[in-house]
Specification:
The complex is a heterodimer. By secondary structure, chain A is mainly beta. Chain A has no helices and twelve strands. The model of chain A has no long low-confidence stretch (mean pLDDT about 95). Chain B is mainly beta. Chain B is built from no helices and eleven strands. In chain B, strands 2, 4, 5, 6, 9, 10 and 11 form a seven-stranded mixed β-sheet that branches. In chain B, a hairpin with a 5-residue loop joins β7 and β8. The mean pLDDT of chain B is about 90. The chains are: A mainly beta, B mainly beta. At the A-B interface, β5, β6, β10 and β11 of A face β5, β9 and β10 of B.
Chain lengths: ~110, ~120
């Protein structure tokens, strides 16, 4: 069984500052993928970034980077230079095994202050 | 290029009724997955359709069923609705039968309320 834990129900950050959203995972599979999604109030889940378990480099996509620490089973999302439009729910998810049936965390609400 | 579309946007039903939700995948995508997202929770995987067949299924009862059409669009059917079925139902499309990929796109969801 796989499990995702997001321990921060809510986070606040000042505009233009960086913020880290925590995610820890548990799986017995050696091959897995970790994903972060953003969900604005409109409801649509927006893919942000992906990290494969065998990827040696931390994934980066623009202002998003994934701090992948395999031994600690953590996959934290770092958002640099926060913008007001970054205010949303953020979900960490993983898929493992051949089917990659996903498990999502409970999410972290991020509010960016001007 | 249209993204993933879902209909209806909102729906109100009463207990015991049946409901059908619809999803059209992004152009070029052949795989559709359905998720249930209860208030304050992350999405939970219901099932995935690929090549018009249910390929993977999450921990949901048989009251939840689906269908995929030759044009890759999909329907989610829920019978004998319970109050606990009230949720946002998300559809996601991708390619090649994998459930969760970096090329998966979600629709805006259908908000179902069961009274």
């Amino acid at each position: 069984a796989q499990k995702i834990t997001q321990t921060q129900p809510g986070m606040f950050v000042q505009e233009k500052e960086a913020v880290t959203l925590d995610c820890t995972y548990d799986t017995s599979d050696q091959s897995y993928g970790l994903f972060w999604y953003k969900q604005p109030s409109s409801g649509e889940m927006i893919f942000l970034i992906y990290q494969g378990s065998y990827d040696e480099q931390n994934a980066t996509e623009g202002r998003y980077s994934l701090n992948f620490q395999k031994a600690r089973k953590s996959a934290n999302l770092v958002i640099s230079a926060s913008q007001l439009g970054d205010s949303a729910m953020y979900f960490c998810a993983m898929g493992s095994g051949g089917s990659y049936i996903p498990t999502f965390g409970r999410g972290t609400s991020l509010i960016v202050h001007p | 290029d249209a993204g993933v579309t879902q209909s209806p946007t909102h729906l109100i039903k009463t207990r015991g009724q049946q409901v059908t939700l619809r999803c059209s995948p992004k152009s070029g995508h052949d795989t559709v997955s359905w998720y249930q997202q209860a208030l304050g929770q992350g999405p939970q995987f219901i099932f995935q359709y690929y090549e018009e067949e249910e390929r993977q299924r999450g921990n949901f009862p048989d009251r939840f069923s689906g269908h995929q059409f030759p044009n890759y669009s999909s329907e989610l059917n829920v019978n004998a609705l319970l109050l606990g079925d009230s949720a946002l139902y998300l559809c996601a499309s991708g390619r090649g039968g994998r459930v969760l990929t970096d090329t998966q796109y979600f629709g805006p969801g259908t908000r179902l309320t069961v009274l």
